[in-house]
Structures are given as C-alpha cells and as structure tokens.
Write a structure and sequence with these properties.
Helices cover 42% and strands 15% of the residues. It has 427 residues and is α+β, with helices and mostly antiparallel strands. The protein folds into 4 domains: 68 residues, Tumor Necrosis Factor Receptor, subunit A, domain 2; 59 residues, no CATH class; 77 residues, no CATH class; 117 residues, Death Domain, Fas (Orthogonal Bundle), CATH 1.10.533. It is found in: Cell membrane; Membrane raft.
C-alpha cells in the first residue's frame, strides 16, 4: 500500500481512539458523581459538601466527602437563596426608577421590587411598568382601581354596584365572627374576675408565713402593753362608745410607707409584737388587728437598696465613631451580642429598637435560622438608629434586664476591640 494512503487511515484511527477515551472519561465522571450523597456536589474527582445559603464556595474540598471552604456574600449587594457550589454570589437586583423597593436584598433573598403608585405590570418580573389609566371611556366608570399588578378596570354602573355589594358581604362575613369572639372573651373574663372576687371575700385567714397581710379578730382585756393595731369604730350605742373604746382619745398616724397597709374606713396602728386574744367590752364587736411581717418588710427594703446601689454602679459607656467600620468588623460586633445573650431573653433585648411587628416579620422571613434572625434584627436596628446608638441602647437594656454576666462579657469584648470606652460610674 502506498505511504500516502496510510496517513489518512492513521489519522482516522487516532481520532477514533480520542473519541473513545473521551466517552470513557465521561462515563467514569458520571459514575463518580452518582456516588455523591444528598447535599454534595462532584468536583475534580471528589464529592464536596454544598455551601449554605448566603455563602459561596471560596475553595473546593480536597478529600472525598469533605467540606468546601465557604465565604459569606456581601450584605446588601450579593445573595444566594439556596445551598450551592457557586464560586461567586449572585448580584442583588437594583430597582429601576419606575419601581419601589418592597423588600431589601438579604444574604439569602434578592431584592423585591414593584411598580410605584400610578404604574402597573401584569407579570412578576417585568422590565418596565406601564402607566395606569386615569379615567374610563364615556358610559363606563372605574370599578377597580389600578394597583401594582393590574391596570384600572372600567365597567358599567351595575357592575360596580355588584362588586361593592360582594365586597360588603365578604367584610360582613369576616367581621361578625370577630365581634362574636370578642364578646365571648370579654364575658368570660368578667365571669372569671367575678369568681376571683368572691373567692377573695371568702378567704379570711392565710397562713402565718404568707407574704400577704393577715387580718384577725382581736379582743381586749384590762391588760395593755404596747400600742396595738385596732379599729377605732365599734358597733355599739353612742353613749357607751366613748366610755368603752380602748383607744379613746388616741390619735394615730400611719407611716407613709409602701410596706404598711391602709384602710379607708378605719384608722390603724402598727403593733410590733403579736398580742394574745382579749375580751371585748360587752355589747361590742371585736376590733380588727393587722399583723405585720417585719422580716418580709426588711427583706424588701434591703433588696430595694441593693438594686439602687447596682443602678448607681452602672458604668458610663461611650461608643466611638464607627462610620468607616468594615462589614467584617460590624458583623463581629453583632455576633458578640448574638453569642452572649440567651435566646429566651433576645426578644426583650431587641424591643429597645424594634417593634413587635418588625420582629415577627424577620422571624417569618428566616424561620429555621435563629442566628440569622437575630443578625437581621440588629441590621434593622442599625438602619433605623445608626450603629453607635444601636450599641448604646443594647447595652443599656442588658443592664436594666440585670443580665450582668452577658453585659460584662460584651463590654469587655467591645473594649478590647477599641469599639467603646468606659468613662466612669453613672450616678
């Protein structure tokens, strides 16, 4: 065979071998990728674990079933909605001039835009909004106002009346059960309060160790030791009242103290010691004596004084100017609060700068990620008050909540990072 005829056949054979090798490699790769479990992806012969939503792959894993090194997306600029193997985060959408921002971009969700008032777009992801009709043709009237997803709807007068009637019926069906439910709750609450009042009237004597004030009948004899707590009025004849009254001529004054009970119809005296029962004059009813628990009163006074001293000892914190702080440093500050404050105390803390509706919206947006919920709440506080005011309010609230350990740990962390300075004790 001539040499010139062998060359094309050799080239064809080499080409065939290359195609076969490529197919074999593809099959092997496909087989390897099928080995990867749920939540993994195949990369250069290894099954790597996906990065969570809000992050992207910075470096792929080097061992089988290993974890890739993930990096967080830039807040307010990038996002990833699901676990992924992306090497870059997705860019947040910027709302155009004819749209308004409904929800800002987060680490796990894109910006939501909708047409501004007076414009509409029938599809969810439209490029341009259309201007709404402002009036209807002759013989027609507006039966449905324009909104972000629908143009003004025109119709005859009868159509408009029908729509209004249907809307009225729907509102009526909603309102009636609500009103009935409110009436039921109010009646139940009144009944419960009435029952509690009757029980209180029947309860005459409590245990001696109770923290309530104990009212017991007391009668007198000829023996009189120390001033007693008695009533000045008795059920008796006017002639005998002045002669038989054991406290006739005695003027009493009650101490102006929250620990002493008062009575509108009787003048009461404090008795420092417990007296034995004494006989009441004939034809009179036993006066009432109020036993006072001095140990309880002293304990309350000491607790109040201790709390006042603690409030006086609160250090005065000054937050430095954080205008040029980096995103990473800001995240570290917020995560120091998230790490130290227990989850059960978080809502009480964050109410210093957010309303309950705002808190509930963020919890609904991130239902399965508590740390992300807390982080987004702090970001919302910052957007509303500024980072310096946010830190100050959070520290003040922690002190008032008496979470001393959390307060001290966070203050020490912020002080070590040169975020705050401690001036002196706050009187």
């Amino acid at each position: 065979m001539p040499a010139g005829a062998r060359v094309p056949r050799l080239l064809a054979l080499l080409l065939l071998v290359a195609v076969v090798l490529r197919e074999v490699e593809s099959l092997v790769s496909s087989r390897e990728s099928n080995i990867c479990g749920k939540g993994e992806y195949f990369h250069q012969g290894h099954c790597c674990k996906y990065c969570p939503a809000g992050t992207h792959v910075l470096e792929h894993c080097k061992v089988q079933h290993g974890e890739s090194f993930c990096s967080s997306c830039t807040i307010g600029k990038e996002y990833t909605a699901h676990e992924n193997d992306l090497e870059e985060c997705l860019q947040c959408e910027q709302c155009k001039e004819d749209k308004v921002t409904v929800r800002t971009c987060t680490l796990t969700s894109d910006t939501e835009c909708q047409c501004k008032p007076g414009y509409f777009c029938p599809t969810q992801h439209c490029e341009m909004c259309s201007k709404c009709k402002t009036k209807c043709p002759e013989g027609k009237e507006i039966v449905q106002e324009c909104n972000a997803t629908m143009d003004t709807v025109c119709g005859s007068l009868s159509e408009g009346s029908t729509a209004i009637f249907v809307m009225f019926i729907v509102l009526l069906c909603i309102c009636i059960p609500v009103v009935v439910g409110i009436i039921f709750i109010v009646c139940k609450k009144k009944k419960s309060n009435k029952t509690n009042t009757e029980n209180d009237e029947e309860r005459e004597v409590e245990s001696e160790g109770s923290t309530e004030i104990l009212i017991l009948p007391d009668v007198e004899t000829g023996q009189t030791s120390a001033p007693r707590l008695e009533t000045e009025t008795f059920v008796q004849s006017p002639q005998d009242q002045a002669a038989n009254s054991p406290i006739s001529g005695l003027k009493t004054k009650l101490p102006e103290d929250n620990g002493v009970a008062s009575c509108e119809s009787h003048k009461l005296l404090l008795n420092d010691t417990n007296h034995t029962s004494e006989e009441a004059p004939q034809g009179t009813e036993a006066p009432v004596k109020l036993l006072y628990n001095h140990n309880l009163y002293n304990h309350i006074q000491e607790s109040n004084m201790q709390r006042v001293q603690e409030l006086k000892a609160r250090p005065q914190i000054k937050v430095k100017d954080l205008f040029h702080i980096s995103t990473t440093e800001r995240s570290d500050i917020y995560y120091s609060f998230i790490k130290q404050v227990p989850a059960r105390n978080w809502k009480e803390l964050i109410r210093c700068c957010l309303k309950d509706t705002e808190i509930d919206n963020i919890i609904h947006e991130f239902p399965k990620d508590v740390k992300e919920q807390h982080y987004q709440m702090l970001i919302n506080c910052q957007n509303s008050l500024g980072i310096e005011t946010t830190i100050t309010k959070l520290l003040d609230r922690l002190w008032s909540m008496q979470l001393k350990s959390c307060y001290e740990n966070i203050v020490n962390t912020l002080k070590s990072r040169d975020i705050i300075t401690i001036l002196d004790a706050k009187d």
